[in-house]
Amino acid sequence: MDRAEVDAKIRELIEPFNKKGISIAEDTGFANDLEFDSLTVMDFVAEIEDAFDIIISMNQQAEIENYGQLVDAVCKLQDA
Fold it and tell me: For 33, 41, 71, 80, which has the most beta carbons within 10 A of its beta carbon?
């Protein structure tokens, strides 16, 4: 999958978690903008891992602060 396809799929996956209907941009933050708590993050990460058949380590999760970083990380993990 190229970055655009990964982006589109993650936008589908984030929809049920985006309770406030925030418009998702590259710099949309998970903690500040979307107000994801730790449980929501874990559930969302599990959805992404299942959809893309990848594993996002806890260290990688700690480095991902916004939507664009997540898309880049998923692309990189798919190529690995």
Answer: 71
